Amino acid sequence: MKIVLTAKGTNWESQIDPRFGRAEYLLIFDEESNELSHFDNSAIANEQHGAGPYTAQKVLEQNPDVLITGNTPGNNALQVLKKAKLDIYIGAGDMKAKDAYNEFKNNKLEKI
Amino acid sequence: MKIAIASGKGGTGKTTVATNLASFFSDSSKIVLADLDVEEPNSKLFFTGDLQLKENKFKYIPNWDKEKCVICNVCSSSCNFHAIIRLSTEILVFPELCHSCYACSELCPKEALPMVPSQIGILNHYKNSKYDLVESRLQIGEEQAVPLIAQTKQYVEKHFKNDVLKIFDSPPGTSCPAIESIKDVDFVILVSEPTPFGLNDLKLAVETVRELEKDFAVVINRFGIGNEQIMNFCANEDIDIIAKIPHIREAAVSYSKGELLIDKFPELRTEIELISEYIFSYKERAGL
Q: With CB atoms counted within 10 Å of each terminal CB, which end of chain A scores lower, N or C?
């Protein structure tokens, strides 16, 4: 299974970025290979509009099964995300990435 | 001549000045008042007249043609506004993010994104025995005011000749809608109030009109409340204060009923008269 997390840094110790569209980084964890990679999304800070759909497109390009973030993504972002068979979990905004992943594994995160 | 009534801060009295000034001017000049605050047009509340024309206004957005598209990504990567998202088997268009630049449509090698009209609002043109009022109303949910403001200005340009004095009641703030309303006028009246909030936003507005290289002056509304800071700021910056409209509670009550203040409050009429004199002397100096 492939999992994308919105984060403020590039490793498991990083805080989850509670914002979806304006997330600084996307962490991509492939459970099969046990590899953690990341996508640098920080240029989004310069965009006035359209952050949601843009970041959603970047998420879908990773072809993930699961997305873990803080707040519910906005309507535009959701329109894009719903085009893929992707489970979205929210409420991890104040956790570190590793804790958010563990909470998800223990079915403690809210699915939308 | 074109005058914009603008402000940094909202609620300082742009519409008060615009509607009273239009009415005052109309005794001696041909006037059109254009309410360009399309997100919240309220000049009409102070105007009784007959509807001359009602026009739907549109912007053009790309409409994806699934049959022609080869999902090549040219459209999505050419869009500066993230209004087009490419998925593995389809293209998603976000009309409210689209700035109608036509890049996607023109660059698409398969002509799979023809531009189609999408309504953004309504323009109303009213008239009474004194002057004309043109206003536009942005459709609910529509994010961009600028295209509708631009089309409203075009309407005014087309329907009113040069000898008509044009007054633009502008949106508040210093972002794109305010700039669109100000950018091709001859003179800007910045309405502010003598409070720290008024001063802060006036500074931003002054910075903006200077950047646009516009001649401008300040009208202080609700004079008597707050403090002296705004007067000191204008003195230091060498900015003319052309009128100080006193703060009168009964005037606010009257305003809330949609009444023109110059008809009921002589002390306010005097201030509007000062603005009028200033504008006419500017007009003469500038040879407009």
A: N
